[in-house]
Amino acid sequence: MTVEKITANPVLQQLPPDLLRERLPRHVAVIMDGNGRWAKQRGLPRIMGHRRGTDTLKDILRCCKDWGIPALTAYAFSTENWGRPLEEVDFLMTLFERVVRRELREMMEEDVQIRFVGDLDALPKSLHLEIDRAMQQTSQNKSIQFTVATNYGGRQEILHACREIAAKVQQGLLNPEDIDESLFEHHLSTAGICDPDLMIRTSGEMRISNFLLWQVAYAELYVTDTLWPDFDRTEMHRALAAYQQRERRFGKV
Ligand code: IPE
Ligand code: IPE
Ligand code: MG
After folding, report:
1. Ligand 2 pocket member 32 (CB < 6 A)
2. Which residue ranges form the domains of the chain, and what is each CATH number?
3. pLDDT (tens digit, 9 = 90+) per residue, 114-130?
């Protein structure tokens, strides 16, 4: 079935039949960009785009679960996003807190395991508490591994891992020659989650913006001009169809 025919089906509850289940990505990462532009196009304040963006995320999470993608990671706030106007940052922190509190029950019902990565200590205390509670309560859930990158920076994550490893060497717990990719990955905040197979960025920007720098080494990149609040199951279908067309060589021939 073509993408156009699928579009005629408004629900897309199940994996579209043209996608091969055995070739689905095991982990999709999304840079949810374009909320501000979406709002601007409608003459609304930027924050309305962020609010709408959370609805999109909720549906894309459910879509991944419905279609059998076992891990989704979403970039919600970068270490550089503190540089935005205070009002917008405050709105986002309050929004995150409200959404985590509001959605916890449903995440339990739907068996979603949520995890937050990034420098969580620097977040407002009340948000940090909600995050801890959600991570703890959902830790045994199995149907999908949902990771939210909040106050996350790929470079900071790598530096943090280096510091931890250096301290272990200094204490005599590790030899420098023990440091390999596997050991390094164990010191990243994403330890235990496989690397993303597919990284999606909405709103057309062709950059990584400090997201999962180590982990995307061999991810397939997919960029769409669609703004994040408009990214829906039809768009997800397009991204997955494009992914399934790719030949992943991993440096081989
Ligand atoms: C992404 O949308 C959300 C966050 C970075 C928090 P933007 O707010 O970056 O939207 P644009 O890029 O300005 O349109
Ligand atoms: C990346 O979007 C960060 C998130 C989506 C949270 P930005 O809008 O912050 O990225 P730049 O500034 O366009 O690189
Ligand atoms: Mg942006």
Report:
1. yes
2. 23-153+195-244 (3.40.1180.10)
3. 999 999 999 999 999 99
Residue nearest to atom 12 of ligand 2 (CA): 209
pTM over 0.85: yes
Amino acid at 171: Q
Beta-strand runs (E) in 40-192: 71-78, 112-117, 144-152
Q: Is 205 in the pocket of ligand 2 (CB under 6 A)?
A: yes
Ligand 3 center to residue 167 CA distance, Å?
Answer: 36
Distance, C-alpha 98 to centroid of its chain = 19
Rounded-to-integer distance, Cα 157 and Cα 145, Å: 20
Burial 137-167 (b: 16+ CB within 10 A, else e): ebeebeebbbbbbbbbbbebbeeebeeebee
Residue nearest to atom 3 of ligand 1 (CA): 33
Residue 33 annotated among the catalytic residues of the structure? yes
